[in-house]
Give the backbone structure.
Amino acid sequence: MKVSSYHSSNKSDPDVYHDHDNCRTGQQIPSYNKLSGTGGFPRCKQCIDKG
Ligand SMILES: [Zn+2]
C-alpha cells in the first residue's frame, strides 16, 4: 500500500526514500530509525517498481 514518504536515519542504510509500506527494504528500517519525508534522497527503486 502506498504511504507518505519515509526514509532511514541510519547512515549505513541506502540513501533512498520509500513510499510503500510493503517495500522489502523499507520494512527493514526499525521504527526508531524511521523518519517521515524524503530526506532529500532519490526514490527507492523497489518503490518505483510498485508504482
Ligand atoms: Zn522502497
Observations:
- The helical segments are 24-27, 45-50.
- The two ends are 10 Å apart (CA to CA).
- Residues 8 and 34 are 5 Å apart (CA to CA).
- The beta strands are 2-8, 17-20, 34-36.
